[in-house]
Amino acid sequence: MEKIILVEKFINNEFEVVSMSKVVHVIPVGVNKERLLESIRKSGYPIQKVYLVIGKEIDYDPKSIEESANEIEKTLKVLVDVDKILVDKIDVYAVALEILKTIKSELDAGSEVLINTTDASRIMCLSSYVVAQLSGSKLYMAIPKFEDGKEVGIERVEEILVPPLKRISDDKMLIIRTIQEQGGEVESINKLIELLEGKTDDQKKYMAQRARMSYHLKGLEEDGLVEMKREGKNVKIRLTELGQAFALMTS
Q1: What is the pTM of this model?
Q2: Domains plus CATH for the chain?
Q3: Contact of 21 with 6, CB cutoff 8 Å
Q4: pLDDT per residue over 61-73, tens digit each?
């Protein structure tokens, strides 16, 4: 059930009750907790829940990230719900997939999701951009203010506009979802055809099916959504992590 927050607004000496869905902020954690907390305060966005994204990093010391996350949680949890997303990989699409699993559940519950990349590492920043595109979430970050070459605070908080994704055809999306339903991998093109269209003894019809499937799979491979690997006489088809993310957000 969608959680409804009632907000009282004083307008013309009268209180107006406004109903709004839960607003969730997803925040990759770095080591500059002061800048991150200030970015939340200055964003002007409502906030009812925070997910702190904590992962293995190549830019920051893991212990410093953990300490920063604990301090941020301690500060925020007196005001809003705080939860954590733990990411155990150093890979743009793997990180994006883990974040999307949480965001998908919030979107399904009717929440609005915003992603704050103010203190994100390079990998987290790229992953957040992918997540914003796939989920339609708003992406924002604080622009630092400098004086005499030193950072002295935040100049402004800015929404980062995310271009729309290339549209994937319905036929290709059906292939992606079918592979996902098989655990993310199908043993051969023939098996995939059978799953989608059933078996046929008509050679002419089979050749048309095979040509159509090969055409779609080639396009999906070029888009980085599937990988195809020959094993013996068969070609195994596997969803990439980006392909899994597409399947998740369209389920």
Answers
A1: 0.82
A2: 4-160 (3.40.50.10770), 170-249 (1.10.10.10)
A3: no
A4: 778 888 999 999 9
